Amino acid sequence: MASVAAGTLLTVAPTGAETAKTDAPALPVTVDELVSTAKASQAAGAAVIHVHLRDDRAEPTLDLGRAREALQAIREATDLVVQVSSGGAVSDSEESRLGVLDCEPDGASLTCGTVNFGTDVFMNRWEFIERLFLAMRERQIVPEFELFDLGHVATMRRLLDKHGAPFGGHVHCDLVMGVPGGMPGTTAALLACVQSLPPEATWSATGVGRTTIPVMLAALSAGGHLRVGMEDTLTFAPGQPVRDNAELVERAADFARLAQRPPLSSDEARVLLGVRSSNAIPSQPSPSTGAQA
Ligand code: KMH
Ligand code: ZN
């Protein structure tokens, strides 16, 4: 087993909420498509799956029944750590974003601030961020703090200072870079964020669109982990649409091996993140966050 510190946590974000199936036919939207994607992504090196749900018309949904069905199917077919999106789509209500947490995921994303999102606004008020954080801790869900901007790092630290450690006792973040309206996908922006994180935190990075590869290389060289997938990237190379999610995971795994930090298994990911394993629930949070409880 590769040591956790020496390996790379690979997360696949296969679907997202903002791309239409008609624009990207390879986008997995049904439960069966999600399961096939999950299996192929695990075989290619992913340890975590970040799940957005679609309804029968392939529109984004936070329907609890659909979420439970998808999670059960993914768990039956793979060992992946299952992280549900609490971000949903830009149009989703706060109540539906809270409600999806009842699907009993291992983890959930938690965005730490409002950000312009192309021509839309992805709204995340301070009080709502607090509610999400507390709801996750109550349900023994490990948050992944989604940080689209340097200010979101400051908000995450404010949250940890006020409320203490998340469930699992460990802080793991994802820097989402290159969203039109958020921080750029550059090495300089990545370093500005990383230098501002709590020292014990772990982090991954995601480069949207054409920032995918520069962000991946910067993250690997700075000791970070990787998130890839069709939520963030639809073009594999100029003029070449992504074949499927596994193609992106395979490339990320190759880069990780080249950096001599091979992909972590899902069991290793559970240890790193403090996620419940099938037969053990982590003891209550120990403050490894750098935050004051
Ligand atoms: N769909 C974006 C507006 C998350 O999953 O938590 C938000 C998003 C973040 O994808
Ligand atoms: Zn997402």
Structure write-up:
The protein is an alpha/beta fold and 293 residues long. Helix content is 34%, strand content 18%. The chain has nine helices and 14 strands. The chain has helices at 31-44, 64-77, 94-99, 126-138, 150-163, 187-194, 212-221, 245-258, 266-273, and strands spanning 10-12, 48-51, 53-54, 60-61, 81-84, 107-111, 115-117, 120-122, 142-147, 172-177, 202-207, 225-228, 235-237, 240-241. α3 links the parallel β5 (81-84) and β6. α1 packs parallel to α2 (64-77) and α1 runs parallel beside α8. The chain is globular. 51% of the residues are buried.
- Spatial strand sequence of the major β-sheet: 1-2-5-6-9-10-11-12
Structural class: alpha/beta
Question: What is the terminal separation in angstroms?
Answer: 34 Å
| SS element count, helices | 9
Mean pLDDT: 94
Poorly predicted residue ranges: 279-293
Shape: globular
Strand share of the residues?
Answer: 15-25%
| Total strands | 14
Tell me the major beta sheet: 8 strands, parallel, barrel
Helix content: 25-40%
Element string (H = helix, E = strand): EHEEEHEHEEEHEHEHEHEEEHH
As a whole number of angstroms, the C-alpha radius of gyration is 17 Å
- Report the bound ligands by name, code or SMILES: (5S)-5-amino-3-OXO-hexanoic acid, zinc ion
